[in-house]
Design a protein that fits this description.
alpha/beta; Acyl-CoA Binding Protein; D-amino Acid Aminotransferase, Chain A, domain 1; Glucose Oxidase, domain 1; 4 domains; 8-stranded mixed sheet; 8-stranded parallel barrel; 36 helices; 18% strand; elongated; binds phosphoenolpyruvate; binds magnesium ion
């Protein structure tokens, strides 16, 4: 087996198709080299080696040492430099690179190969002593940090002291002599903290770095990131070893990061940042404020320092050509790292660029319109879950804003919440149900869990490509970065700006689209659903087969759902109507009645209320099917539970407190989820379902008469386990229909069907379909009853289950395809065998989950039903499932 793949100098052992083996970075370096772009030569140690490394107790096989030697020889042959040579030393960078980019892993060691001898050789070869010693001190600092994992604060402090001693403010002011002294300091720090001398053998340095990359795959931070992003531990990381090129060789050298289009808004414009006379980490770390890439961007920002387009027009022109080559080649927006060494351009990385939902949408639609990709590819490119960001409110432009600071618009969306100054507090407060804004001077991978828990992120330092900005965009969190006017003390939990103080718990608002930071909460407005969004939805609708309905029970929800493109209501939970202030008293009287006559009297009072509820919904959904589910929850849910409420309710219901309490006691259940609920209520108190059915048919006839567009009611019976239950309940519904039609002298079409939400119902679906005209899979209850896991209590242990790989994802969020899915598949088959045209849908929470929608397409359901805000997500996911 081979583990080392070379690239550069006309050789490419791999290509962009080898991401699983070479990681994203390695595969794309090989690909860029193969299409003739300037890539410094190097080699990639494959992810398979990472897996083997862990399998074999974190040791390297001898064969790898031989292959690495060949890899080094490849680099030496092309560069004419020799690794460890005292006169003409080869320096390399060592970087991790998994299949997908993963903050939380060891990132980069630069300048590897320097020691007390080679530094002298580098100084002579480059004819620049200062450069050589600056590279050496950077190398020790980085190696100590990421490979030896020593306290980097001490090294930064030593650097600060070195500058202060001379009265300097910039690193660049330090002379070769200062830097030599600093190297001595650094080596002392290594010795003191590590207990050993800084490794002088360049091969030891290299193996140390390779081991650190593999080691970082199992770091806590990487594990957290993998868990949040569903990345399996088995993937492993690759290691990329590449000849150094130097952006810090004076004024004709530079380093930068760029996107081929604006990753925030999606505009077709080169977008990026660079620094003259600097190395890569300077840009990302936000140590110096980077300069703009293009003149247009600089002018728009009103910034002074020249853009790359102005400062280095020739190299910029070359870079722009590379951008175009890459976009045409990869047919996607690219995120690039480059270095200019003495006016020569080198490409260090390209990958498909992370982008906001807004940019993803715009870029996909633009590229299809430009003919670069097809409409179907555009549909496939947009992550349905990311649409969530676009469907949620933004700040009301009319609302008053108390702007206290302005930073960069790093990730769009607006968020309000309490100020918190560390990730752990963010996580704690979020878990307690509070909205928080995480405020940091700058973020690092250690803050990821807090960023995830926060509604928004605010930093004082760092550019548009800083850690905070990149991670926030990926997570879909609004972010304002580099708000330079604020001073943050994480220790004292306070942020100061313009003479004002924001302390932990104070509410503030950030607008990630403008970069504004505001004190207090600011009102929001609904999103714009026209433009690119509408275009993509039209394309999605052309390819999807599954219909999309909404779970909705108020006219407002139905309206929202219709605007989002719902093609009917898949689940109207009637019990929500029972809780309404005007009705709850009648509902309670019904429950407290001692006989059928008493229940009927109370139900008579509920009838007109239900009728008008249904009429409103039918009017909004005119011409579309509406599935109305008859009462489901156990009756005690409608009775008071708090002592304080009893007297009030007793009075309203016209009975004494003791009677009320006795009845509440009678209704008490040890396990109400498996108790007297669903059709079991209809079996014991058929008059309840009779009233509901009557309300449905009367409302349908009213709306048909008024509007001419007859609604199509689908009456749904919950929690059925046997055919006999459904037979009985269907008879109740049919009787009510016949009675109403006879009274009115006119009819509407209707269906009677059932939820399939119990394993027995799924198994006996063939029989149940003899009566049921449609099935709607209630996968919330079906998951609960199949797994034997209470949907209300699962949170306590499901996290551990997912962490330990027992279920790949929370089965109440994403369908357990293997288990619950098998019941769904089987019920669909058996139902169809009995009644070939039976209508099949899903109305559990899974109906809005993209992965579960993929499964519904496979099984051939007719529709999915999701909450109104998830309807567009479901439309897009359904289209992707059909592609
Ligand atoms: C279900 O069980 O999946 C369902 C949709 O019904 P409910 O969530 O109301 O129990
Ligand atoms: Mg249910």
């Amino acid at each position: 087996d081979r583990y080392v793949y070379r690239f550069g100098g006309g050789v490419s052992d791999g290509g962009s198709g080898d991401k699983n083996l070479l990681g994203g970075k390695g595969a794309n370096l090989a690909e860029m080299a193969s299409i003739g772009l300037p890539v410094p030569p190097g080699f990639t140690i494959s992810t398979a080696m990472c897996t083997r490394y862990y399998d074999e107790g974190q040791k390297f096989p001898q064969s790898l040492r031989d292959e690495v030697a060949e890899g080094l020889a490849h680099i030496e042959a092309i560069t004419g430099k020799v690794f460890g040579d005292h006169d003409n030393p080869l320096l390399v960078s060592v970087r991790s690179g998994a299949r997908v980019s993963m903050p939380g892993m060891m990132d980069t060691v630069l300048n590897l190969g320097l020691n007390d001898q080679t530094v002298e050789g580098l100084a002579r070869a480059a004819e620049d002593e200062r450069f050589a010693w600056d590279s050496y001190r950077r190398f020790i600092q980085m190696y100590a940090d990421v490979v030896l994992e020593l306290d980097h604060g001490a090294f930064e402090e030593a650097l600060e002291i070195a500058k202060e001693d001379q009265g300097f403010t910039l690193d660049t002011e330090l002379t070769a002599t200062d830097l030599k002294a600093l190297v001595v300091e650094y080596k002392k720090l290594v010795r003191a903290q590590w207990g050993k001398d800084f490794p002088q053998d360049v091969h030891d340095q290299l193996w140390g770095a390779v081991g650190a990359v593999f080691g970082s795959w199992q770091s806590e931070r990487a594990k957290v990131y993998r868990r949040l992003n569903d990345i399996p531990a088995s993937w492993g990381t690759a290691v990329n070893v590449q000849a150094m090129v130097f952006g810090n060789m004076g004024e004709t050298s530079a380093t930068g990061v760029a996107f081929t289009r604006d990753p925030s808004k999606g505009d077709r414009a080169y977008y990026g940042e660079f620094l003259i006379n600097a190395q890569g980490e300077d840009v990302v770390a936000g140590i110096r404020t980077p300069q703009y890439l293009t003149r247009a961007a600089r002018e728009e920002a009103g910034a002074k320092p020249l853009s790359m387009e102005e400062a280095m027009p020739d190299v910029y022109g070359e870079l722009a050509n590379v951008f175009d080559t890459l976009e045409t080649h990869y047919r996607d927006m690219q995120d690039i790292e480059f270095t200019v060494e003495k006016a020569k351009l080198w490409m260090l990385q390209t990958r498909s660029g992370k982008r906001t939902a807004k940019a993803a949408l715009k870029i996909a639609v633009d590229m299809a319109n430009e003919g670069l990709i097809t409409e179907e590819e555009a549909v496939a490119r947009v992550d349905p879950a990311a649409l969530d960001q676009l469907l949620h409110p933004t700040l009301d432009p009319q609302a008053k804003r108390d702007v206290i600071a302005k930073g960069l618009p790093a990730s769009p969306g607006a968020a309000s919440g309490q100020a918190v100054f560390d990730a752990d507090t963010a996580e704690k407060r979020n878990a307690a149900g509070e909205a928080v804004i995480l405020i940091r001077t700058e973020t690092s991978p250690e803050d990821i869990h807090g960023m995830h828990a926060a509604r928004g992120i605010l930093t004082a330092r760092g550019g548009m490509t800083s850690h905070a900005a990149v991670v926030a965009r990926g997570m879909g969190r609004p972010c304002v970065s580099g708000a330079g006017s604020i001073a943050i003390s994480a220790k004292d939990k306070v942020m100061r700006v313009g003479g004002r103080e924001i302390r932990e718990g104070d509410v503030l608002t950030i607008d990630g689209a403008t970069g504004e930071v505001m004190a207090g909460e600011v009102a929001t407005v609904q999103p714009e659903l026209a433009g690119d969004f509408a275009t993509l939805m039209v394309w999605a609708d052309k390819v999807r087969r599954l219909k999309v309905r909404a779970n909705a029970e108020t006219p407002l929800d139905c309206k929202t759902a219709r605007e989002f493109g719902a093609e009917g209501v898949g689940l109207c939970r009637t019990e929500h109507m029972f809780f309404d202030a005007g009705r709850i008293t009648a509902v309670r009287q019904m429950i407290l009645a001692s006989d059928e006559a008493g229940r009927r009297a109370a139900l008579d009072r509920l009838l007109p209320e239900q009728r008008s509820d249904f009429a409103e919904i039918f009017a909004v959904m005119a011409g579309l099917p509406v599935t109305i589910r008859l009462l489901d929850p156990p009756l005690h849910e409608f009775l008071p539970h708090e002592e304080a409420e009893f007297a009030e309710v007793a009075q309203a219901a016209g009975i004494d407190v003791d009677t009320l309490k006795r009845r509440a006691n009678e209704l008490h259940e040890f396990n109400p989820m498996l108790g007297h609920r669903g059709c079991r209520l209809g079996v014991t108190y058929p008059e309840i379902y009779e009233m509901q059915a009557r309300a449905i048919f009367e409302a349908a006839l009213d709306v048909a008469a008024e509007s001419g567009a007859a609604p199509i009611p689908e009456v749904m019976i919950p929690l059925v386990a046997t055919k006999r239950e459904l037979d009985l309940m269907k008879a109740v519904v049919d009787r009510a229909a016949q009675a109403v039609f006879a009274e009115r002298g006119t009819e509407v079409e209707y269906l009677v069907g059932t939820m399939i939400e119990l394993p027995r119902a799924a198994l006996k679906a063939g029989e149940i379909a003899e009566t049921g005209e449609f099935f709607s899979f209630g996968t919330n209850d079906l998951t609960q009853t199949t797994l034997g896991v209470s949907r209300d209590d699962a949170a306590r242990f499901l996290g551990a289950y997912v962490e330990q790989g027992i279920y790949p994802k929370d089965p109440f969020v994403s369908l357990d395809v293997d288990g619950v899915g098998e019941l769904v598949r089987l019920a669909a088959e058996r139902g169809r065998a009995t009644r070939p045209d039976i209508k099949l849908g899903i109305c559990g929470e899974h109906g809005g989950d993209p992965a579960s929608i993929g499964f519904c397409e496979q099984v051939g359901l007719d529709y999915v039903s999701a909450s109104p805000y998830r309807v567009p997500i479901a439309r897009l996911a359904a289209a992707q499932a059909a592609l």
